[in-house]
Amino acid sequence: MAHADTHAHDDHHEHKPSGIGRWLFATNHKDIGTMYLVFALGMFFLGGAMALLIRLELFKPGMQYFDPQFYNSLVTTHALVMIFGAVMPAFVGLANWMIPMQIGAPDMALPRMNNYSFWILPFAFTLLLSSFATAGGGPAGGWTLYPPLSLQGGTSFPLTIFAIHLMGASSIMGAINVIVTIMNMRAPGMTLLKLPLFCWTWLITAYLLIAVMPVLAGAVTMLLTDHFFGTSFFNPAGGGDPVMFQHIFWFFGHPEVYILILPAFGIVSEIIPTFSRKPLFGYDAMVYATASIAFLSFIVWAHHMFTVGMPLAGQMFFMLSTMLIAVPTGVKVFNWTTTMWRGSLSFEPPMLFALAFLFLFTIGGFSGLMLAIAPADFQYQDTYFVVAHFHYVLVPGAVFAIMAGVYFWLPKWTGHMYDMALAKWHFWLSSISVNVLFFPQHFLGLAGMPRRIPDYNTQFTDWNMVSSVGGLVFGVSQLLFVWVIVKCVSSGERATDKVWSDAMPLGLEWTLPSPAPYHSFEDAPEVK
Amino acid sequence: MTESLYRADTARRGRARRLTLLLALAATGVYVAFILLHVPQARG
């Protein structure tokens, strides 16, 4: 698709800034993408360490290691770190690396804002985590920050609120950058319906971010004024309503779920055709399905709060609208499966992770449908079944897709092939242990084990032990991921420009040499 | 590098600026609107 003299031209401009300044003042999309990905990996291990402490406490019934307040802080910050520190920055990192290369642009449209939006994050998470050192410990009211509980948080409360504001500002700036880049910087001939699916899903995600991150910011600002300035947005004594917070929070929170999964759909839509050696089945349908999911995500929020007490008509509406999401999601699963049908399949690490995504994300989707049934939800609400559901969507869903994307594009970034055998070990250990970790939590939830409680009835012991062992194996096996990456950066067989095969993958990024030059597409390629 | 591309293409630079401003205003508008919408409730 791109013209042929890309290599020769780019080689003249391989000068890079050096020293710490290269990273502090970075405006190059590849450098900023790398910083986002490294930051996300660090946060993934920090959030993972918190998860291991949670599983350690839950290994046996009774209070083992932590007091309940600290346990609640671990649960709260594990969620905030994983959502805002690991998954979202990882997707932004992939977007930074790949979107300009996929659309034939020299960089993101707003490189300096790109720098700001990254450098806000370390400060935001320093604020959040420093609250552990304050009197009363870290935030312990859950990542949903429901009042009145969250208002009782002591010193950690304003630190958490300010940290969330900063994370929101960073996300919004990143989203604006993605939209302006895709709308303004596409190579000549690249019409919207020729965009790679990863760009499409990110474009829609960016609109979702701009629509809902300010809603979260508004909600936490109102919490702040309730706590410090005597307003009563959520205080019934002054005419407010705590349930209103839940409505506002989930009006942000449900689209947020799709912010965490739509870019994953994009990555999988790039990988499955490559390793099936066939074009994606139903490209247009995939684009429209993504847009439909994004639209529907705005009208389903109250399925998170069926048990607060709402009119029957409200329950019916939110139940049926939630179930409607299964239609465009089903279109996607059908199209991925049909892409593989009669394809010339091979099972390199990116494809293995994409296939695990397909199976395991679908399990998470099905348990989501069960939770959408209002009368059944009264039983499942606030049990481990919910924990099992959203971890299936987010770990073998979003996180596996990120790993698939890293394994897919890593040779293009570093110029080296990685250790395939080690990467396959990483895959098999991760996908077996992730099921050992989360599948038993369905049983625990259906048997009535509540979430966010450090102790439990002895009847839940066996499955909790199994889940904790799965957690330990999953956590340790992620060290393999780091080892594969470190080895690949420093050594390994040279990657070809197309990396995977001569026929596939298609796309402008594969017309660049491996490793991709520091400055790419200074002259826009022509897309036919 | 990106800047040189933009210098060479003032129409595209203008479009990018307008779109950036529009999106930033939209985000700010949603933030302010969601708070103002709930002020009557906060007053009791």
Distance between the termini of chain A: 6 Å
Radius of gyration of chain B: 18 Å
Query: What is the beta-strand fraction of chain A?
Result: under 5%
Describe the main β-sheet of chain A briefly: none
Tally of separate domains of chain A: 1
Q: What structural class should be given to the helix and strand makeup of chain A?
A: mainly alpha
The helix tally of chain B amounts to: 3
- Summarize the largest interface: chains and residue counts: A-B, 39 and 24 residues
Q: What assembly state would you assign to the polypeptide chains in this entry?
A: heterodimer
- In terms of DSSP E residues, the strand content of chain B is under 5%
What is the radius of gyration of chain A?
Answer: 23 Å
The number of helical elements of chain A comes to: 17
Envelope shape of chain B: rod-shaped
Helix content of chain B: over 70%
Outline the low-pLDDT stretches of chain B: none
CATH topology call of chain A? Cytochrome C Oxidase, Chain A
CATH class category label of chain A:
Mainly Alpha
Helical content band of chain A? 55-70%
